[in-house]
Fold:
Amino acid sequence: MKSSVEAQQAKEIVFDYTSFLSVLCHHRPTLWDAFKVVLPALEFSWGRASGSDASKTERLRNQALKVLSTHTSDVNNLVRLLRLARMEQISELDIRLPYSLDQEQLDLITEKAECEIQEIGNNGEQLHIRLIMS
Structure:
């Protein structure tokens, strides 16, 4: 199976949200998963403190598996994903979606995740995200 996060070039990361949702659907939820939905900030800080020799893309994928949920809206999941990317010092990434998001959803992600979003192609199912680093 193809990884949902691929290193395309040194700076470019592609996150396949469609295949990632498929993996999440087959994931058996635990009490810890329920707790993470209520307090995602705790998971961010705990996961970051544990450290790892994995690449940024693998750390992003592993953290996303712990934090994102099929019981949360796509907007909230994408905002969480972008916060994780920022913590991994990833400044740009492409996200493949199963469907396009409407402008209101894109505006909300832009505001909450402090990023710029550019739709790639005509169907809006792939986004190029540039995080605004402070």
